[in-house]
Amino acid sequence: HAIEKMASSTFYFVIAVLVVIDIIQSRYQKKLQAERAAAGN
């Protein structure tokens, strides 16, 4: 059972990391778009 518990915690950890990366990328893309818009003006 210990191994299953370890696997599930690792699984949730990986999902959490993916979610954080997704949020960071979306914020970074918005920042880039805003800078491009400002440069365009």
Please work out how many helical segments DSSP would assign: 1
What characterizes the major β-sheet?
none
Q: How much of the residues is beta strand, in percent?
A: under 5%
Question: Secondary-structure element order, as H and E?
Answer: H
Integer average pLDDT = 90
Question: Radius of gyration, Cα only, in angstroms?
Answer: 18 Å
- Shape field: rod-shaped
Structural class: mainly alpha
DSSP, total strands:
0
Low-pLDDT parts are none
What portion of residues is helical? over 70%
For the termini, the CA-CA separation is 60 Å
Please give a structural write-up.
With 41 residues, this protein is mostly helical. Helices cover 95% and strands 0% of the residues. It has one helix spanning 2-40. It starts with a helix and ends with a helix. 0% of the residues are buried.
Relevant terms:
mainly alpha; single chain; 1 helix; rod-shaped; 41 residues; 95% helix
What topology does this entry show?
Elements lengths: L1 H39 L1
In short:
With 41 residues, the protein is mainly α. The protein has one helix spanning 2-40.
